[in-house]
Amino acid sequence: MKIVFEKTNGLTEVPMRYCPGCGHGVAHRLVAEVMEELGVTKRTVAVVPVGCSVFMDEYVNCDGIQGAHGRGPAIATGIKRSKPETVVISYQGDGDLASIGMAETIHSASRSENITIIFINNAIYGMTGGQMAPTTILGMRTTTSPAGRRAEINGFPIPMCELLSSLEGASYLARAALDKPAHIIRAKKYIKKAFETQIKGKGFSMVELLSPCPTDWGMTPKDAVERIRQEMIPRYPLGVFRDWEAEEKAKKEEKAAV
Amino acid sequence: MPSKGKIEVDIVRCKGCELCILACPQDVLALSDTFSASGYYPAYMKNPENCTGCALCAIACPDVAITVWKEERKGDLING
User: Could you report the per-residue pLDDT of B44-71, keeping only the tens digit for each?
Assistant: First the structure.
């Protein structure tokens, strides 16, 4: 028999110490597989966030630097500008990217900084115990919204892909989920396209991944992936929001038509 | 009929989250009765004869604990 699936060399031998059913493991694997497939593992620098995935550089076989909370895109900007030959990814959670790091995220997108952001959206602050995040969906119970998030008190959740898609500088924006194999395969395609966007020098790319956090959602891993399907995907629709390739093609066709 | 595929679960990495069991369309997998060194009940092949080597369990696995083998046939697409 022939091996059709094995652990990629982009991952180290260290077993991941995330909770059972955590989406970080799948996200790390997809990033590592894409790095290996594109042959950029040796020149990739991952800016790892504050959060559970702060140990990412132990699990993924690339260089790593740990950023202050929310400042991933700023650090990634510095690395990419001083060493343009590197492939720079900023791996961030929702509390990191959409709350304390909102300014860095929006401005790096509007400057069309040639970096890739992998955005893990699990709708809460995972590492600190499941507090409400800017992306917490309405009605969702967290430790700081025990009766469920209410719009009149806590405001509405922020959909980052839709928000950034209005910026001219954002070149590639896509959202995928990590709830079932079909969505995971699609997520890998998006991540690959985001890496290619950066390698071709097309500017800012971000892939948002809806990810389960069974421990802080107080659920079994099975129920957690069911929640992504039932509650998160209707609020955060999957798909590609900006694609430089499609836009360039449309422009060419428009010119040809004139 | 011999099975078309087989999997191996790395019990050091497996945390018994059951997501592979959920992903398997052939009801091949189950959780073991004995626990691993880290205290989890790892997955194993309960019905190895049903395995088709589709690798959906490995794609769903958050801990990259599963290696998949598949019987070679002409015209097969090897997925990655």
Answer: 999 999 999 999 999 999 999 999 999 8
* A53-95 pLDDT per residue, tens: 999 999 999 999 999 999 999 999 999 999 999 999 999 999 9
Sign of CA dihedral A47, A52, A53, A54: positive
How large is the ipTM? 0.90
Other beta carbons less than 10 A from residue A151's beta carbon: 10
Report the candidate in A181, A211, A199, A196 with the shortest Cα–Cα distance to residue A243. A196
- Confirm if A205 and A5 have CB atoms less than 8 A apart: no
Q: Is A49 on the interface with B (CB under 8 A)?
A: no
Is residue B78 included in any domain, yes or no?
A: no
Pick the CATH number of A23-257 from 3.40.50.150, 3.40.50.970, 3.90.1150.10, 3.30.1330.10: 3.40.50.970
| Residue A8: closest C-alpha in chain B | B64
Tokens linked to A128: 């600190």
The angle that helices A72-82 and A102-110 make with each other, rounded to 10 degrees, is: 40
By the CB < 8 Å criterion, does A221 face chain B?
Answer: yes
